[in-house]
């Protein structure tokens, strides 16, 4: 399998974590968002939205959208399941996932931030205020929903951790004050003790190692 990824993409980071948790053999193909490689005809032929990630299976089949990719991987590789068998628990985890995937991440994405600065001409402080505002609102709700356990929901990482950890990475990168979110930070710190999460970190990606590609 091949994952088209960008080291700082939180959506790609989710998939990197899942591939590692499930120990699926794969390679990573960096797509540099700053160089607009995601808008190249070559990449658009794979992912017509021009967003990362995109998964290419060993048969050359292409899949867009991290949620669809994660669901495919969880069906194909049922060990280290990302959702529990209990329907209510699974739905509860899915609701946390949706809060991140549908309500926090989309309004903080690169193209939204670029639209704010390039088209609406907001300055960098206002852009930062926008970013922090939507993260804090989202995390306030998430904080009330997480269990006081090692990971988001229990003693095994689940899909909730797969989504949460990249979102916390982004929040820390934009210097969001995380003091009010102890349960979120607890899951973040515990996940980051695990090899699957460590290997998936942005700073451990090959494209992060190339100084010329850094922001
Ligand atoms: N819902 C999509 C979101 C993908 C997405 O927004 N990816 C970002 C990086 S995290 C991207 O490619 N951004 C490029 C841009 O905004 O131009 C998914 O989960 O795969």
Mean pLDDT: 95
Beta-strand content: 5-15%
Please identify the structural class as seen in this structure: alpha+beta
**Helix fraction bin:** 40-55%
CATH class of the largest domain: Mainly Alpha
Total strands: 4
Main β-sheet, spatial strand arrangement? 2-1-3-4
How much is the radius of gyration in Å?
17 Å
Write down the secondary-structure element order: EHEHEEHHHHHHH
Query: Ends: how far apart?
Result: 28 Å
Contiguous helical run count: 9
Reported by name, the CATH topology of the largest domain is: Glutathione S-transferase Yfyf (Class Pi), Chain A, domain 2
How many structural domains does the protein architecture include?
Answer: 2
Largest sheet: 4 strands, mixed
User: Do you know the CATH architecture of the largest domain?
Assistant: Up-down Bundle
Describe the protein's architecture and organization.
By secondary structure, the chain is an alpha+beta fold. The protein folds into 2 domains: about 1-80, Glutaredoxin; about 85-195, Glutathione S-transferase Yfyf (Class Pi), Chain A, domain 2 (Up-down Bundle). Helices cover about 50% and strands about 5% of the residues. The chain is built from 9 helices and 4 strands; from the N terminus they run βαβαββααααααα. It has helices at about 10-20, 40-45, 65-75, 85-105, 110-120, 125-145, 160-175, 180-190, 195-200, and strands at about 1-5, 25-30, 55, 60-65. Strands 2-1-3-4 form a 4-stranded mixed sheet, covered by helices on one side. α1 (about 10-20) crosses α7. The chain is globular, with a radius of gyration of 17 Å. The mean pLDDT is about 95. It binds glutathione. Glutathione binds near residues 51, 53, 67, 110 and 111.
């Amino acid at each position: 399998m091949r994952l088209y990824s960008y080291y700082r993409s939180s959506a790609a980071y989710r998939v990197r974590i899942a591939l590692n948790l499930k120990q699926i053999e794969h390679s990573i193909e960096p797509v540099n968002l700053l160089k607009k490689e995601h808008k190249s005809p070559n990449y658009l032929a794979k992912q017509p939205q021009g967003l990362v990630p995109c998964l290419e299976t060993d048969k050359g089949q292409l899949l867009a959208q991290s949620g669809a990719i994660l669901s495919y991987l969880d069906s194909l590789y049922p060990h280290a399941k990302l959702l529990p068998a209990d329907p209510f628990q699974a739905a509860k985890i899915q609701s946390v996932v949706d809060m991140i995937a549908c309500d926090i991440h989309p309004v903080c994405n690169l193209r939204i931030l670029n639209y704010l600065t390039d088209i609406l001409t907001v300055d960098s402080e206002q852009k930062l205020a926008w970013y922090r505002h939507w993260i804090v609102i989202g995390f306030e709700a998430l904080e009330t929903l997480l269990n006081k356990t090692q990971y988001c929901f229990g003693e095994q990482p689940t899909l909730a951790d797969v989504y949460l950890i990249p979102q916390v990475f982004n929040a820390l990168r934009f210097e969001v004050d995380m003091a009010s979110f102890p349960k979120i930070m607890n899951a973040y710190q515990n996940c980051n003790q695990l090899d699957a999460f460590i290997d998936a970190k942005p700073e451990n990606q090959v494209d992060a190692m190339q100084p010329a590609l850094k922001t």
